[in-house]
Structure formats: structure tokens, C-alpha cells
Amino acid sequence: MRYLGIDYGTKRIGVATSDEGGTLAFPEVILDNDKNTLESLQKIIEGKNIGEIVVGESVDFKGAPNPISQKIEEFISELEQEFNLPVRKEKEFLTSVEARRFGKARVDASAAALILQRYLDRKNLI
């Protein structure tokens, strides 16, 4: 089964996908967060045969929800209703900072891959 990773932002959404075995995550694309977002995600979900979605859960340094947390929860609800797939959350603490170490200016898809890889690593250890 393939997984879809999402780094949600109010302007852009980073997207990553896994390999068929659900072992490795790869940056896929950066989408504008607009009225076409769900349609664009649907094309990826159908084209890659995605079975589960992992969304980065944004928290502050103390682990508490931050200002974007509510928007992420609303987005997760939209995903669940639109695609009828399991949607999991994975903490996204400093993934953009980590992705920038690879020298890219727009890091959203790389951050999504880091979020997804963390989830897959944790899942595969269980």
C-alpha cells in the first residue's frame, strides 16, 4: 500500500508519497492551497493508488497546538469526507528547518516527505 504525506500550509501544501511497500517517502509536489487542492490531491491518490493519508500535526515548542492547528483539523475533516481513506497525524516539529538543510528554497514537499518518513518508520517498528 502507498501512503500520502501532507505538510499543510495556509498558502502551500507539500505532498509526498511512499513506495508500494510503505517503507520510503519521496517528495512529490507543492500545491497551492486554493479551491483546486482537493481535486489535485484526488489525481495523486488515484494515480498512485494511495491507501492512507498522513498529515503533519503542528505544535509549538511545548507540544501544545499552535495557531494553524485548527485549520489542519478542518483540512483533515475535508480529506476524510472527500476521500474515505484513513487519515493519520504525525508531529511535524521542525520538518521545514530540517528540509532546508538540503539547500532548497521551497521545502514543502521535502517537509511532507520527512513527516511521512517519520510515520512510516514508527509504523514499521511496531
TrEMBL record:
Record key words, sorted: Cytoplasm, Hydrolase, Nuclease, Ribosome biogenesis
An example Gene Ontology CC term for this record: cytosol
The subcellular localization recorded is: Cytoplasm
GO function terms (MF aspect): hydrolase activity, acting on ester bonds; nuclease activity
Q: CDD domains under this entry? A: YqgF
Q: Which residues form the YqgF/RNase H-like domain?
A: 1-99
Asked if Zinc is a keyword of the record, the answer is no
Q: Quick one: a GO biological-process term for this protein? A: rRNA 5'-end processing
Q: Does the keyword Hydrolase apply?
A: yes
Task: Identify the EC number(s).
Answer: 3.1.-.-
* Its biological purpose: Could be a nuclease involved in processing of the 5'-end of pre-16S rRNA.
HAMAP family recorded: Nuclease_YqgF
**Which protein family is it in?**
Belongs to the YqgF HJR family.
Protein's UniProt name: Putative pre-16S rRNA nuclease
Which organism's genome codes for this protein?
Candidatus Nomurabacteria bacterium RIFCSPLOWO2_01_FULL_46_18
